[in-house]
Amino acid sequence: MQTAVFIGADPKVAEIVRLGICLRWPKVIPMVAVTGTSGLEMIKDESPDLVILRPDFPDKSLTEIIRELREFSDVRLVVVNHQSNELESVTALEAGADQYIQLPCELSEFTFKVWSLVRRTEGRDAGEDEEPLIGGDLKVDPSTHEVFIGNRDLSLTPAEFQLTHLLVKNNGSVVSRSQIEKELAKAGLGGVGSVKQHIMRLRRKFEDDAKHPKWFVNVPGVGYRFIGGSKSGVRKAA
Questions:
Q1: Cα(117)–Cα(97) distance, rounded to whole angstroms?
Q2: In angstroms, how far is the first alpha carbon of the chain from the final one?
Q3: pLDDT in tens, 102-123
Q4: How far is CA 180 from CA 37, 123, 165, 199, in A?
Q5: What class is the 4-120 domain?
Q6: For the chain, which end, N or C, has fewer CB atoms within 10 Å of the first or last residue's CB respectively?
Q7: What residue segments make up the domains of the chain, in order of their start?
């Protein structure tokens, strides 16, 4: 890891983040932004390897900044906060965060959790050299983690992209729930919601009807199958 960004207004939390990062990566000094807007601009300019977010800034809500970030970046994202309600961590993860760390926590615990996320997701960029998959109007691009139907960008979360890529790559074949869970865990995304929840959100974004599916079919007791390719199936882009 070479660069990190902390977004948050509390200097005490910023210092904890700095110490935690420097303990594991001594050459990395996190850049700091005190508002959501300036933080998003910093991420666009610097393309960091890690973003740590404390949602105590006045200009954006937690879900708002995560969703805006995920519109242009798949960077590792950790949310740290004194949990205001039991749903906050779930909301953050569903919006696109990779991990939620509840404050207060020991510095060693914070450092270990961040290190674990980085270690687990080191293979996330392995798809950069893969060619896009094309199926009818659908295009799945591993190099940019973008999914398009025609000209419409679906703006998927990291877990939703991994699931879409897995199902499209296995076009027409059933992928079991256990295999999906295994692949999400390998990408460091095993704790961000159930397979059923991911499929439900994908169907909303794909505008797919579960009763009359055009994209994703549930195979009861087994898993899911992608059926949205053209008659000639999914192919790699030329």
A1: 11
A2: 33
A3: 888 888 888 888 887 887 776 5
A4: 35, 16, 11, 11
A5: alpha beta
A6: C
A7: 4-120, 126-236
